[in-house]
Amino acid sequence: MPLRYLTPCLLALGALAVVGLGAEVEKSVTVAEAQRIAVIDRVRPAVVAVCFYGGEACGSGVLIDAEGYALTNFHVVQPTGSVLQCGLPDGLLYDAVVVGIDKVGDVALVKLLPRVPGKPFAFVPLADSDLVRSGDWSLAMGNPFGLSLDFTPTVTFGLVSGVNRYQPPEGKGTLEYTDCIQVDTSINPGNSGGPLFNLKGELIGINGRGSFEKRGRVNSGVGYAISINQIKNFLGHLYAGLDTDHATLGASVATETEDGDLSVMVVKQILDESDAARRGVKSGDQLVNFAGRALTSTNQYKNILGVFPKEWRLPLSYRRGNDTKEVLVRLMGNIDAQVEKPTADKPVPGRPAPKGDGGPKRPGLDKSPAKKFFVEKKGFANYYFNKLRQDKLKTAVAKTGDFTPLAGPWAIDGTIELSDRRGDFKLTLVDGADGLTEAKIVRNGIEDLVKPLKSNAPLGELQLPQGSGGLLSALYLYRKLLTQWDGGFEIGFDHGGHEPLYPPQLAAKPDGKPAERLKDSRVDCEVIRGKHGPFEAKFYYALSDQTLLGCEVTVSKDEEPCELYFGDYKPVDGRSLPHRIEVRSGDKRYAVLTVKTYTLGKKAS
Hints:
The chain is an alpha+beta fold.
């Protein structure tokens, strides 16, 4: 065929190919668009407009369970006061109350009250935000500038620009954004507290900060969302109505030298009273791994540390010379737990400040049904919900049996394995002639006796047997918990949220050797905290089945606590009790008690 005929044919075929390719691209785009719209339609009913009482919009939020609990920013609810209202895309306002707050991490949990009792709310699933990567698509939803008078949220669409970003505090240690997600998805004033979704409709973060053109408050395409995985660490605290705090290690950590390897993180200074110092960490040690993540920069260290609550125990690996050691470190607190609580007295730029929880500027507030769900107590955002969690846990653990009639003499017999010997033991808990409970243990012919509430008892006596950190005192408090619950702790009793526990029996391999990593023995627990006499106690109940796995009793903050780990539960007269109790203090195991018999007496009437 002559070339003059071939060329038009080739051009025609090329044009057809381009048309075909275009049709294919167009189809994939329309499919993606349809999927995106379907996701938006699915999650829209759970997007919340957070309002002052009366309906004036001040931010956004998102429902995370059917009972009406919703996440938002602390800085959104801080000016509203504890009683507020929330709008949903059904066009209705719902009465609501603040449940828990995280001032440092800028997160708050609120509870919407259903208009029809018992009717469930729409809610969204929580993602694993550690899977989010730069370049992922994201959806932000909320109520920027209060545009949506019918509470139908605005939707914006864009890229995840970065992950593991660090943004320093804006206040007195508050509003610190650690390990957060950076997006170019448009976020403006009013979006604060609203959800950031992946394209599956899963919640990956809570929008909170943005970089704005200062005078016009115009979005510059740089926004920040608190990762949902960070929030998960605090959810147990928020549900328990706590005014929670973030953690610090009690040490200054930085690169070894200004011109050295940026990935070598070294302890520059460390507080003597920190748990890290107690565990052997010293100035000059290189921190290698913290909470399962390698340390490679100062910002990364701040990111990792900043996503955990105070008092959590987490594994820390450090190197000294050629030796690397892994230890469990209890984290210290960051700021005063009473800083910047929610209050409607705080002015908001551009708005007159309401008085009290709304006062005369918020008509009808006194009649809000949400007011009965708020109980003020020092150290708590809302003690009503703390008591709710206490009662819920009490009901769950009741399946182990009713111990309340058994406040009389207790006797426990079995064998004891110490570091250097084995033998029999007999432990008794009885009320003495002076009315004080006596805790006594006899093992291998050696007797120790403690009266935990004896006036002016020396510290060493309360910590008997020597080296145990206070085994007799701890068992005394354990019995009080079982038989009296909150009635046994006259100074204080509350739900402490969630914490990880590392039962030593779970850290052992079948051959008896320790597990390679401490994280392998981690069990997430609900915590009950109690104060009685000179003692502070923490009791750990497994989240999975509410089994009491351990307790920790502190006699003095300057001394190591006594730790009891309970296992091998068996029935005793219709009640479940542990037949293996491991006793530890500091980094050392004091003993393992193997129980043969319990004799539980009733209190004389």
